[in-house]
Amino acid sequence: MFGTEAKSNAIGLTLFLTAIVAAFVFSSSAAQSMPGQASTSAVFSFADATEVEGGMASLIRTADAVAMELATSGLEPNAPYTIWWVVFNSPAGCSDPCNEDDILADDGTMNLNPDAQISMIFADGAISDATGSASFSALLPSGRTLGQVVAGPGLTNAEGAEVHLVVRYHGPAELARLYDQLSTYDPDPSAGGVCELCSDQQFAVFQAAIN
Q1: Which residues partner with 86 through β-bridges?
Q2: How confident is the model at residue 193 (pLDDT cuts 50, 70, 90)?
Q3: Three-state secondary structure string covering 8-43
Q4: Distance CA 28, CA 26 (A)
């Protein structure tokens, strides 16, 4: 269980991210044109590609933004997680289908397929509850980001991109770096930025709305 200070830090991050998203919602022409084109996806496990029981994700697209919500279970209890936009702006340039072959080399290092115009961007962070459930939501306008960019130019083809949502585990919660565990890809400064306990655990897939 977390102490009061850890909970306060987590709540503070959530409110901070919510405020940023809300600012975009009310200022962005994309958001003001919502509702747009909506779709849903099951949530899948990276371990065996099976559906996560009770998991569901939704995506809304406009001409210049995408917004998502994802609720899931089967996570480590009371643990920090992030969720990431993996955007294939040009899915016609992907392997068939768009997958890890477009992102990783055979040795597991990052090697983005340039033809797919891939971006990997922070979306949201949350601490799972005692049952291992968590919910995430985020808005991604074209040409703008709300957090860490691991790779790519961002969203450049809102209606035509294939969008994957990746739920990432960040090891047991640590008060000293909880903020980083909820907002960065590899939050482990002591290891030079490589988090040995971090792992991608779940994902959802939204194919291109238009070709």
Answers
A1: 120, 164
A2: low
A3: HHHHHHHHHHHHHHHHHHHHCHHHHCCCCEEEEEEE
A4: 6
